[in-house]
Amino acid sequence: MRQFDVVVIGSGLGGLLSAVMLAKEGMSVAVIEQNKQVGGCLQTFSFDKKIFDSCVHYIGAVDEGQTQHRIFSYAGIMDELKLKRMDNDCFDEIIFGDDPQVYPQAQGASNFIAQLAPLFPGQQPVLEHYMESLKQVGGSFPLYELRTGSESEKDLVSHWEVYETLQRLVPDARLRNVLAGNNLLYAGTRDHTPFYLHALVCKSYIDSAYKCSGGSSQIAKLLWKRLQAYGGEVFRNEKVTGLAEEQGLLKAATTASGAVYHGRQFIANVHPATVMSWLDSNQIKPGYRKRIAGISTSISAFMVNIVLEPGRIPYANRNTYWNRSGQSFDAVHYRPGEWPANYALYYGEDALRPGFADTVALLTYMHDEEMAQWQHTHNRTAETSSREAAYHEFKEQKAAQLIDTVAQRYPAIKQYLLSFKTATPLTFRDYMGSPDGGIYGMMPDVHQPMQTRVPIRTKIPNLLLAGQNVGVHGVLGVSINAVAATAELLGMDYLLQKINRT
């Protein structure tokens, strides 16, 4: 019987990063992954000899000295990452309906203001105040600056509603909706989303924005490589089905194959509701289970990944976010006749023809309820089931609808489309491990902060939680959560000193 110091369940970014930091300290670490490919939201896939990102199309805060750069440097992967800096004056462009005006979001606080101010005469002081507010929020979350601090710092800003705060900071309605125009990054709602979610996500890209050349899976592959160098192991195609407890502590994780992984400490980098389904422990009270089950998961998405005819469409080193209405928070509550209510465009550059795009990904919101009749089916590499013709017809119809909507503004995408594949809420559920296909996991509610907050520690002393459900989502957010989880075993002061010395 092998026993590991730490058993990590789930090889998403949070799991792999935690595993690397612990293995670096000499601990024996096992990572258990249900899929063939590691990486969770970092996974890529290919068809027609083109690579596509499943979720992560760009990352932020990776300039030297910035938080993501420092964490990846400590993990030993920063120097090997192949990154391309996005357009400095417009990494995200925001557009509305059939309005021809394009609104740029630029890298760097002063440049962000400089690019938008000419489009909004008299609003430069407002933009300066907005940027100061982002900085204030970022400084109120100590780990985002890789320093120790207290919960009281967060309390100063955690009660701010995103919609109310933007109204207070930015009286001009169009400017306000431009600033929230890339809401697809965090699926914010008017009534429940805290401003800090908007601020932390958006600020990371304003700090610096990069694409992963060749796909985001390189992050996972490099972390796996570092983990192996430190003696850690990854066990793929192993779906956890239960966690065994003895005398108040977890002893082992069992899988569908019958394998048993014994450990002294456990980190679950999966949805907390899934963890609850594995546990039969009287330490987990019914009230806690009910609270976890009651936390809303973010909306899901529909994606069309397109292979383009080579040499036809110039590569845009920026992303595009379109909202059907002038209200950036409306799309998340779309009604059936309003779909698609928004979309994002993410171009991929042709390595053989620099300056031209060879792929484009289209992403829009989709409610998981639209998948109700196929919820019982699964389609992963290690677990497949056939889906009826109606499901494939649904995908084709929705893909055509989204492509036609995009083509109203960008006709060349439809004109030079060679082939495409789609992803539905079921795809995100099966490959990302989110029960409802929610793309950003559990969502915080500014009016119920304690009820919707999932702590890293659990009532079982040797079980920790990591990933996008225990804090802010996204590459930076999950990296911060991994630092917090790892620090529970190594000590926060000790770990931060080591990261900051890198």
> Which shape, going by the Cα principal axes?
globular
Low-confidence stretches: none
Instruction: Kindly identify the CATH topology of the largest domain.
Output: FAD/NAD(P)-binding domain
Question: What is the count of β-strands?
Answer: 22
Please give the share of residues in helix: 25-40%
Annotated CATH homologous superfamily of the largest domain = FAD/NAD(P)-binding domain
Mean pLDDT: 96
Radius of gyration: 22 Å
Beta-strand content bin: 15-25%
**CATH architecture label name of the largest domain:** 3-Layer(bba) Sandwich
Largest β sheet strand count, sense and barrel closure? 8 strands, mixed
What is the domain tally? 3
Number of helices: 16
Structural class: alpha+beta
Q: How many angstroms separate the termini? A: 37 Å
What is the CATH class name of the largest domain? Alpha Beta
InterPro entries: FAD/NAD-bd_sf (IPR036188), Retinol_saturase (IPR052206)
Keywords: FAD, Flavoprotein, NAD, NADP, Signal
Pfam families: NAD_binding_8
Protein name: All-trans-retinol 13,14-reductase
